[in-house]
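Most newcomers find our protein records easier to grasp once they have seen one. Read left to right, the backbone structure tokens trace the chain's path through space. Nothing more is needed to start thinking about how sequence determines fold. An example says more than a description, so a record of this kind follows:
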Amino acid sequence: MGCKGGAYCHLGFFGGFMNVAGQNLAENNMSDSAGTIEKTASQKFVALVLSIMPWAIVGVLLYAGLFIKPTPVIEQVVPHAIDRRDILLGAAHVNDDTYLAAGNYGKIVISEDKGHTWAVQDSTIETHIQDIDSWDEQHAVAVGNLGRVVVTADGGATWKEVTAPKSDISNKLIRVHTYAGGEALAVGEMGMILRTTDYGNTWERLREEEDIFMNDIVRVDENTIMVSAEAREVTEYDGEIAGENEEVLDATTGARISARIYKSVDNGQTWETIYTDSPNSFTAIKFRNAQDGVAVGLAGAIVATRDGGNTWTFYGSKVSGMTEHLMDVAWSEELNEWVGIGNKGKWITFSPDMSDFETQNLSTKDFTSHSEMALVGDGFIAVGETEGYMDLKTKTWALLHE
């Protein structure tokens, strides 16, 4: 249809264009307005949620506190039977598989698998235990500081403290050894020599008090008992030192210094004092039969007898090669030799005729000191600053710390 009047036609064209543009603009404005409404609603919803959340949390916590019972999970730490900080001073061989050891703060441990694993027993005391020994699988005795003595009659399931004679001055008991029929002999400070004949329940003193350390004791036969003691001054003594060239004299008094051995041939009723050529105190004494015995001591001192303890020959460090303190000695049937152990990881073997000495280290890493050993078969367990097992066949040392 034709347009009448060009101007109107142009106005109509522009009017239509304007209507379309206006319509588009209106639609755009409506769209923007709707978007603003949706965003505001979201914000209101979030605000609502945030306002409710604290009360929800409080409600959940209140419900948990009233109705949910927590189950605690406690991770129990079981301490090792033998800790690296333990110092075990005494050891005993009970039977082929069973060992006992005792030491600091009343600790007693037992192994029933040749020392591979250990279990703690309640000694009932917290005083340091110096030594332990057993009569059989059920009966054992331990002695220590302050003259304290504990015994067991049920394999260590229970220990009880018993009364023993004491000095008014000092009472450390150093060693104890058991014998047939419930007998045990113990020694310590102030010349203490004790005996029991009823598995440790009662004790008697065998010698008068004296200011001297008795360090070890051994029953040689049914009547003979010997004790190794510390070195003291001797004003009159004439003897020769085997392997040494000069006597040792006290720097102040000029008196001869001699380590002593006490001997009784009437089962402890009377005692003879034997002065030896050793200037260093004895720490241990053992006999392999009624005639042959040895005692060892400080600075590697070794003395030997072949006549039942009547005479003793001294072997110093220049002969034996041992300069460290020896703390214990035992006869090894496996090696057919004496075995000694002591300070700084040192141990020694020597022949029964005292002609051959071999000083060795337990290992290339262990330089600790050891106070006692329990020797049986092809090895021994040693206790002290560290606890370990020495295989005498392979000469290998293994620590027992778990």
Q: What stands out?
A: The longest strand covers residues 225-234.
